[in-house]
Each structure stands twice: as C-alpha cells, then as structure tokens.
Specification:
Helix content of chain B: under 10%
CATH superfamily of chain A: Porin
Mean pLDDT of chain B: 86
Largest interface: A-B, 43 and 34 residues
CATH topology of chain A: Porin
CATH superfamily of one domain in chain B: Cupredoxins -  blue copper proteins
Order of helices and strands of chain A: HEEEEEHEEHEEEEEEEEE
Number of helices of chain B: 1
Shape of chain B: globular
Shape of chain A: globular
Number of helices of chain A: 3
Strand order of the largest sheet of chain B: 6-12-11-8-9
Mean pLDDT of chain A: 93
Number of domains of chain A: 1
CATH class of one domain in chain B: Mainly Beta
Structural class of chain A: mainly beta
CATH architecture of one domain in chain B: Sandwich
CATH class of chain A: Mainly Beta
Largest sheet of chain A: 16 strands, antiparallel, barrel
Number of strands of chain B: 17
Strand content of chain B: 35-45%
Distance between the termini of chain B: 83 Å
Oligomer: heterodimer
C-alpha cells in the first residue's frame, strides 16, 4: 500500500502532458447469441471441441475486456489486458497480459524492442485485434486456439528489427528471442482433449475447461525459450517462423500435483494482403509434448501434434467475408491413458459488418468433425461432428488522455 | 512621345513576362515525363535537374509540411531544397513518434499529437527516410535537393520546370517504388535560352507495389 502514492504520482506526472496519449484505455464488450449442436463442450465436462454446446447456448457473454496502457517515458510503456468471459472461472475477472514494453528510438538500421512481463508469443497471424482478439472471424483456428489456451510468455523477450526502408528495401526483417518460466503445464490440455476451436483463452490466474486446468506454474525451475524470425514486406506480406521449447523436465511435479510437460514445436506462417481487399493466411505447427518420469522410455507419455489452417478473407466498405479450413492431428507414441490420437478438420465461415466507428456485428458458422478414442470412455462414439453458429454484437471504445 | 515610349516599354515587359514568367528572359523550360513499362505516367516521383559544369545556385529556403493522417505520412514523398524547414504536424487520432536515422538528417520527435515540435531544418542534400517508432508500417520520404530545380511528378508522370539558365544538366528521377537502378535513369540534357525542352524517362522494370494501408484503427502489433 505504501507504493500507492508513488504510483499515483507516476500516473499524474505522465499525464501532465495532456492530450498526448500518455494514458490510453481500450475496451470491448462482445455479446453473443449462440446455437450449437453435437456433444458436450470441454468447457462443461465433455470432450466436445467447440466453446459452446447445446446445453450452453443462447445468449452468452463472448468477452469483456479493458486494456490500459500507461506511457511511463517516451520509450517505455506499461500494458495490461484484463478480461472476463462469464464462465466458471476461478476469478470473475482476470489478467491476460501485463508487461513493460520498451522501444528505444532506432539510431541505426536496427530497432530494438523488449517486453518484460506476461504476454503472448509472436506466433499467430490472425489474432491481431485488441487483447489478442481474432479479427477475421470470432473463433481462431485450432492452432491459435491452442496457443491462446495453454501459452503465455512470463519472462523477457527481445526483438531486433532491421528496418529496410532506410536502405531502399520495402521490408523489415526481425529476429526475436525470449526466456520465460511459469508455463510448465503447457501441453496438459492438448493431451486431455486434443485441439479445439475456441475463442476462450486462458487467463494468468484462472482455470480453463472442466475438469479445470491452469497453466501458469513453475515446476521444474528450468527456464524455457523461443526464437523466431519475421519478414515483413510493406504492409502486404508477413512471414513468421518460431521455434518453441519450454525445456520442461517431464519428471518434475509440484505439491499440488501439477506436472511439468516438455512441450516443443515449430510454427511457420505467412499472411499475404495483395491489395486493399484480400487477405490470405496459412500457418502450420508441428511439435510434441512429453510427461512422466521414465525419460523417453515406453512408460513416458509422449504425444506428437500437428495443426495447420488456410484462411481467405475479403473486405470491402464496412463488410468482411472469411472462409477458413483447419486440419489437426495428435498421435500418442507411448505411455498410458491412450490412445489419445485425434484427427479432425473444420470449416469456418464468418461475415462481419461495421456499424459506425464503434459497433460491429459478426456472424460465424463453424463445423468441426473429429475422431478421438477417449470419447468411448464417456459412452459416446469416437467420431463426432459439431456445429456452432454465433451472432456477436461487439462494442469497442478507446479513451485517451 | 515620352508617354508612348513608356507605354511601349510596359507592353514589351508585359509580353516578356507572359512569355517567360520572369524578367530573366534567357531562361529555358524543361518538361520531364516519367513512364512505366506500359506507358503510364508515374506519380509522386522526385525529379532533380542539376547544372553540370556550372555553379549550382542555392535553392530558396522554403517551408514545407509533412503531415500524419490515418497512420501514414502525407505526402508519402516530399521534395524540398537544401536548407528548407519542414513542419511535422500530427493530425491523426493517435500519437506518433517520428524519427530518421538517415545520414542526411538524424532526428527524433518525441511522442506527440497536434503541432508540438518546431520545424526541422534539412541542411544536407540526400534522402531522409522517416519512420514512426510506434507504428512500424509508417514510412515517409523527404528528398532534399542540392539543386534549386526539382519537383515531384503529377498524376500523368509530368514535372514542368521553368526559369532554368541555359546550359548542360543532369536529370535524375527517384521514387521508393522504382526498381530500376538509379544510374540507368539519369539523362543529360542541354537547354538553350528561350527554348522549351522535354525529356522522357521510361522504366524498364515493373514498379514495386505501393502500400495500400487499410483502416485498422484498433489493430495491435501482436
């Protein structure tokens, strides 16, 4: 509490230059009307892989979020994202991201940027809205749904971006690397349920799914890393590659019974915007996860995963139409509880319409067919098809001081 | 008689003024047309016309404006004479941080909106590439010309210059969207007094794509 006056002083002093965006507050409220068919969602104790199900549809809160940004100095800002999803979380509202963003002015061709705190890794090419929201539809791809569910970088990231414009090139090239901890359970939900299509990411202090899982614990006291490349050509093409390895010790377990999962993957993706209307995105993720004390033996639970999607979107005036195809697959190679082999594919179609500056209407229909043998234990067939229709009304605002 | 002579002198002056635009009437005019491979005019390219073997007059000091709107520099390409001052108002809905690390002019304007910073003087000829430290996709160009004879092409790819002294000149064109090697576009021209010359520059390589920023008001840099 003794720090409160100091913080207030900091806020007030940075606000002294009024009207210069020293403090900004972005926010959004997303209300849905949902109609779902098929099995019970993983959110409600089943192994269905959509966010909603026939017993949990109708009027729902999609998400409400507040994202304040305090610019402490010219090159240092503090970013927070706080949200609520209106489901059975541990906390009614929670934190998604909270980090210091440091961007010195470039004095040669390289611009450095550092982030310290808790934030999303730079992997998705579709979650580019406020607070990592999907901008092309309502539900992200299976690949990026998983990223949102099980991963948050809690640590330090440094990016060096070579700014080509000053050398007559119309593109930038960046190298990024991070060291982090407190994400050892990442992989548990994928093993439990397989991939899903859900716009319900985890929060830092909350639970996800039923049975409830949380992902932000340091169990093995070994930091993880990721390293990546990105190439931007104008505003038109962005190519990203990322290698992720949380360096988990599969033998480690904490007092609460959480295991450290050793999760590794490589993601490759590209987003092309050839003109003012079209967007094309393709992304692929290939990796594996392991848990259990028998290091790389028959006893260890070892699961390979692969997910990819292709998206085409056309925008004109105030409208946008999007179609996306998802394919995803997990394959258990060893260990108990199997076989947790998932095979699935999905089609998603979305239409959005801007109602003025702040309001948006989005309609989305998705159909996902998947095969997952653990469903037999729930007394249902391994092969299931689910459909989910959502109509979202979104209100966005931003306040600036 | 005196009145008549005066009238005649005035009429001559007016005629000369109409013909040449200035009293310095041995001046020449030059029209430069820049065309792409398909014969279409190339807009917003900088054309500089530099005297060869003669003293280069210092460009008149002028003020220019590089605005910021919808997360873009407006105009994207600005041509100025050496010694000119440029204002950088920010008329966007969000704040920007303008910088350049080009050798011709290094500077930075801390986070601002509206008209906060005094004009920046560009004392050295050369290309100055502008960026915004918050919005990486914002790129602007200020071309600082050592010669007083310069300008940017219009929608038809044409730049018309007048009042050039007779003599030999080197014509150069530049645009961030031209892929042809710069030297291949240089032209030598000789201008005669009281004459109008024209020069055509046709690109051999296709133009690079121009950025078409979309109104992503709320996009984040994830």
């Amino acid at each position: 509490m003794r720090r409160a006056p100091l913080l207030a002083l900091l806020v007030l002093s940075t606000l002294a230059a009024r009207g210069q965006d020293r403090l900004t507050l972005d926010g959004a409220v997303d209300l849905r009307w949902v109609h779902a068919s098929g099995e019970t969602s993983f959110q409600n104790g089943g192994l269905g892989i959509t966010r909603f199900d026939p017993d949990h549809d109708g009027l729902e809160l999609g998400r409400a979020l507040l994202a304040p940004n305090l610019r402490i100095t010219d090159i240092v800002s503090l970013q927070g994202v706080f949200d609520t999803y209106g489901d059975h979380n541990r906390n009614p509202a929670d934190v998604s991201e909270f980090y210091l963003d440091i961007r010195p002015f470039p004095w040669n061709s390289v611009r450095w940027r550092a982030r310290l705190g808790a934030f999303y890794m730079p992997v998705s090419l579709e979650n580019r809205g406020v607070g990592w929201s999907e901008v092309y539809s309502i539900t992200p791809s299976a690949l990026n749904s998983w990223i949102g569910e099980e991963f948050r970088t809690i640590g330090a990231e440094v990016e060096g971006r070579w700014l080509g414009a000053s050398h007559g090139y119309l593109g930038d090239f960046a190298l990024v690397g991070a060291i982090y901890g407190w994400n050892d359970p990442a992989g548990a939900l994928l093993a439990e349920r397989g991939f899903a299509l859900s716009d319900r990411p985890s929060t830092l202090f909350g639970y996800l799914g039923s049975p409830p899982l949380d992902f932000y614990h340091e169990i093995d006291h070994r930091p993880g890393y990721y390293g990546g490349l990105s190439w931007r050509h104008h505003d038109r093409l962005e190519v990203r590659a990322l290698r992720y390895d949380n360096r988990g010790d599969p033998a480690a377990e904490n007092a609460a019974g959480n295991y450290a999962w050793h999760t590794r993957f490589t993601s490759l993706g590209a987003r092309l915007e050839p003109d003012a209307h079209w967007t094309f995105i393709a992304q692929d993720l290939d990796g594996n996860t392991a848990v259990g004390s028998d290091n790389e033996g028959e006893e260890q639970f070892y699961l390979k995963m692969r997910a990819a999607f292709a998206l085409a979107s056309f925008e004109w005036a105030r409208e946008r139409l999007t179609a996306r195809y998802d394919g995803f697959h997990t394959h258990q190679l060893s260990g108990e509880f199997g076989p947790r082999n998932q095979d699935g594919h999905a089609w998603t179609f979305a239409f959005s319409h801007e109602l003025g500056e702040d309001w948006q209407l989005v309609a989305e229909w998705l159909k996902v067919a998947s095969s997952f043998p653990p469903r037999l234990l729930l007394g249902i067939a391994a092969d299931q098809t689910q459909t989910q229709f959502q109509l979202a009304v979104r209100y966005n605002f931003d306040l600036r001081w | 008689m005196k009145v008549a002579l005066l009238a005649l002198t005035s009429a001559t002056c007016i005629t000369f003024a109409l013909l040449c635009g200035t009293p310095q009437c041995s001046a020449a005019a030059l029209s430069v047309t820049l065309l792409d491979r398909d014969g279409h005019g190339v807009e917003d390219a900088v054309v500089t016309v530099t005297p060869v073997g003669a003293r280069i007059a210092v460009p008149a000091v002028k003020s220019a404006v590089m605005d910021q709107r919808d997360r873009a520099f407006v105009p994207r390409v600005l041509a100025i004479g050496v010694g000119s001052r440029v204002e950088f108002p920010n008329n966007d809905s969000v704040s920007h941080q303008v910088y350049s690390f080009s050798p011709a002019k290094r500077f930075q304007l801390p986070l601002y909106k509206g008209e906060v910073h005094p004009p920046v003087t560009f004392e050295q000829a050369g290309l100055v590439v502008l960026g915004c430290n918050i919005h990486d996709t914002m790129v602007g160009y200020i071309y600082v010309s050592a010669s007083p004879y310069f300008g940017t092409t219009d929608a038809g790819g044409v730049l018309a210059l007048k009042d050039l002294p007779k003599g030999d000149y080197r014509v150069a064109v530049w645009s961030p969207y031209i892929a042809d090697p710069a030297a291949s576009l240089d032209r030598a021209v000789h201008l005669e007094a009281d004459a109008a010359a024209s020069e055509r520059v046709v690109l051999q390589l296709p133009l690079r794509a121009r950025p078409e920023p979309r109104p992503r008001r709320r996009d984040w840099d994830y």
